[in-house]
């Protein structure tokens, strides 16, 4: 469920007209619904309530949408944070998320990032290689601290999703092969400054079936038992994220958070671990749209080209992942058309969809790309010297600009080069 709906035949976000936002903020602009984020955060927390031992932690994957106001809203809704860079760590802390509710993931953490996060505090580092463990040990020893550490296993389970968002097969860069876990933990436990107490798994994004998740979790459970038998005190199991979101009619329907929670309780019933979860898209994906205006309609051989003022630099997912986004007119005409929807960027890849049936629109009309609250603005760039899109947050019948449109001159570099 989201809070984008028609009022007086025009699309609104909660109690605010998207036409009014476009008139004031311009286009392209990302528009986020606070009520939708609040609801999704509550649904996910309710779905996993009572799972594991101790309080489950739903740690929002900051990479999905790192806007400071979004993070503050989700922090108030009770979510922690899963971060993959020191920049994301700083944003989470600035948004008021307590350090004991932050996990630091990612395959390429530097010693400098580790040092700052360790000094600032966190629940645990999710380590992905022995080389990384050695670096963390050196950092912890230098500070005279014990670094709380989990490690990510690679269960060699296919998520059944797009290759570029699959992360749990043997040829992915992430994690430690499950078969090497015992050797890894023995060596890691021998290093100074490491408190090895957790394991984590994440096999990919936008999953539409619980089967690969259950397969990965069962392998994780077997590993936890083997690690404990070997003397390793595993107290935290981080089950990652990846549960898909609905994209509308004709698209695969993912399992509900409730069904996911039932599966998790069943599989983890005898683990005796605290459980962590890292949803991102599930929380913010359907809480946002990209609002854009039609520049012109150009005749085509098979279908007209609907050229909009948003480009692949604003919404990269279709070009990067062949991602589907539902496209709707802000003021539906009730008459359908088949069009190719493209942006102004000088790349053939600047194509949002081909041969899509949608409401008939003309130059100057507004349309939205739905399910754009995750991996939208965060992946944007200034390619073609185009300004970064603005971002707006709606709360009931009021709205606020939470990122100004960034002028391309601000991205151009220093005014005078100082040669060294």
Automatic annotation (TrEMBL):
Q: Which UniProt keywords apply?
A: Amino-acid biosynthesis, Decarboxylase, Lyase, Lysine biosynthesis, Pyridoxal phosphate
Pathway where this protein functions: Amino-acid biosynthesis; L-lysine biosynthesis via DAP pathway; L-lysine from DL-2,6-diaminopimelate: step 1/1
Q: Could you say which cofactors this protein requires?
A: pyridoxal 5'-phosphate
Which EC number(s) are documented for this chain?
Answer: 4.1.1.20
InterPro entries documented for this protein: Ala_racemase/Decarboxylase_C, DAP_deCOOHase_LysA, De-COase2_C, De-COase2_N, De-COase2_pyr-phos_BS, MerR-type_HTH_dom, Orn/DAP/Arg_de-COase, PLP-binding_barrel
| Example GO molecular function | diaminopimelate decarboxylase activity
Q: Which domain of life is it from?
A: Bacteria
Q: Which residues bind pyridoxal 5'-phosphate?
A: 242, 278-281, 375
Which CDD domains does this UniProt record tie to the protein?
PLPDE_III_DapDC (cd06828)
Q: Which residues form the HTH merR-type domain?
A: 1-27
Kind of enzyme, top EC level?
Answer: lyase
Which residues does the record list as N6-(pyridoxal phosphate)lysine (modified residue)? Answer: 63
What is a single Pfam family found in this protein's UniProt entry? Orn_Arg_deC_N
- Residues that bind substrate, according to the entry? 281, 317, 321, 347, 375
Query: Its catalytic activity?
Result: meso-2,6-diaminopimelate + H(+) = L-lysine + CO2
* Role noted for this protein: Specifically catalyzes the decarboxylation of meso-diaminopimelate (meso-DAP) to L-lysine.
Subunit architecture: Homodimer.
NCBIfam families per record: lysA
Member of which family? Belongs to the Orn/Lys/Arg decarboxylase class-II family. LysA subfamily.
What name goes with this protein?
Diaminopimelate decarboxylase
Organism from which the protein derives: Sphingomonas glaciei
Gene name of this polypeptide:
lysA
């Amino acid at each position: 469920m989201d809070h984008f709906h028609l009022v007086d035949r025009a699309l609104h976000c909660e109690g605010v007209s998207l036409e009014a936002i476009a008139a004031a903020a311009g286009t392209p602009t990302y528009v986020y619904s606070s009520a939708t984020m609040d609801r999704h955060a509550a649904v996910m927390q309710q779905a996993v309530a009572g799972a594991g031992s101790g309080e489950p932690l739903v740690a929002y994957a900051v990479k999905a949408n790192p806007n400071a106001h979004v993070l503050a809203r989700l922090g108030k809704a009770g979510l922690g944070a899963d971060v993959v860079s020191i920049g994301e760590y700083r944003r989470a802390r600035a948004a008021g998320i307590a350090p004991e509710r932050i996990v630091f993931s990612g395959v390429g953490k530097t010693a400098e990032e580790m040092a700052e996060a360790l000094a600032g505090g966190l629940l645990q580092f999710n380590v992905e290689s022995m080389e990384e463990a050695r670096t963390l040990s050196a950092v912890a020893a230098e500070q005279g601290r014990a670094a709380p550490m989990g490690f990510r296993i690679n269960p060699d389970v296919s998520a059944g999703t797009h290759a570029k968002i699959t992360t749990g097969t043997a040829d992915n860069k992430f994690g430690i092969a499950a078969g090497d876990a015992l050797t890894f933990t023995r060596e890691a436990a021998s290093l100074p400054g490491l408190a090895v107490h957790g394991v984590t798994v994440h096999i990919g994004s936008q999953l539409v079936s619980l089967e690969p998740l259950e397969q990965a979790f069962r392998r994780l459970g077997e590993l936890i038992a083997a690690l404990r038998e070997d003397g390793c005190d595993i107290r935290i199991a981080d089950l990652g994220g990846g549960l898909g979101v609905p994209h509308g009619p004709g698209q695969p329907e993912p399992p509900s958070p409730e069904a996911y929670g039932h599966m998790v309780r069943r599989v983890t019933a005898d683990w005796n671990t605290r459980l962590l979860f890292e949803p991102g898209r599930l929380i913010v994906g359907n809480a946002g749209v990209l609002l854009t205006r039609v520049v012109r309609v150009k005749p085509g051989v098979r279908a007209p080209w609907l050229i909009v003022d948003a480009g692949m630099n604003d919404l990269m997912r279709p070009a990067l992942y062949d991602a589907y986004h539902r496209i709707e007119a802000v003021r539906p005409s009730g008459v359908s058309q088949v069009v190719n929807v493209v942006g102004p960027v000088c790349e053939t890849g600047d194509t949002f969809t081909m041969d899509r049936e949608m409401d008939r629109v003309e130059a100057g009309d507004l349309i939205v790309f739905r399910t754009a609250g995750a991996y939208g603005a965060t992946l944007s760039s200034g390619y073609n010297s185009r300004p970064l899109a603005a971002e707006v947050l709606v709360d009931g019948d009021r709205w606020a600009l939470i990122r100004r449109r960034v002028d391309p001159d601000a991205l151009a570099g220093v005014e005078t080069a100082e040669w060294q």
